[in-house]
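Hi Y.,

Following your request, here is the sequence exactly as I used it, all 297 residues.
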Amino acid sequence: MDKCLQAGNYYCNISGKCIYQSSVCDGVTDCKEREDESPPACTEDECFRRDRTLCGDFRCIPTSSLCDRKVNCPGGEDERFIACCLKHQCESNRSLLFGCLGECKPGQFGEYCEKTCSEKCLNRICDKSSGICKNCTRTYLENCSQECGEECRERNGFSQCDRQSGKCLNCCTLNHYGHYCNNTCKNCKGNSSNIPCDINGVCQFGCENDYWDKRCNSKCNANCQGDEHGKRCTSTGECINGCTRGWSGNLCGESTDKENVSSLKTTVIVIPVIATVVVVVVGIICYFWGRKRFNRH
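Below is the corresponding structure, written out as tokens. Let me know if you'd prefer a different format.
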């Protein structure tokens, strides 16, 4: 025994056999009564260190023996459905009694990694125990049940929005703005490579002809003269090339026929007043004439 142990080998106590240390916990019985394949020689830690799998009776077998149509565990559990799941879908530390003790491969969850993550999960990654998505694809909320805005800019091939609020994370597609990208930029200058407005809808490269203000929602006054490019007003609404005939002011909103208009207004007011005075005078004259006639009689 001393010589066996001094050489770094394993000594079988019952049979007195000396075997290589590499033969311990390798799934092949070398000692009588399976000393080399059971505790204390073959522990769970030693089994997992060798990337092997524990049977239900704590026998350690090669992971390659799982789901190979040959029974290796006394109870035959190495050929059941859960054994196939452990072999192909568990990353490490497999136990036919306790399941996958490591992480499941992406797309799988459950005690034996036997369940498939929802397609709503980004990259099919979900919590191993609950199956809740780590991140959603085009959806949000805990169970990824709500759709993100259609105009949320994509990342890794999927629209992305905040898991709790649904707000877009990566800005909006062209011509849209807002936290949910549900508003449309209108009349902003831009091209296929530039986002025309920011998240608040403010146009970043100015307005198209005939529009002004920060969001380009206001139209130039129809009385403004246009330039050779058809542009009629500045970003503040002031006319660039003056006004059309009959109008004046920075915004061309004042009529140049003011005096005529005032005169017309005065005439409209004075005529009714004169008519009223005439009626009153005629009434007074009629009153006195009638009175005089009454007295004569």
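The mean pLDDT is 83.

Thanks again,
Q.
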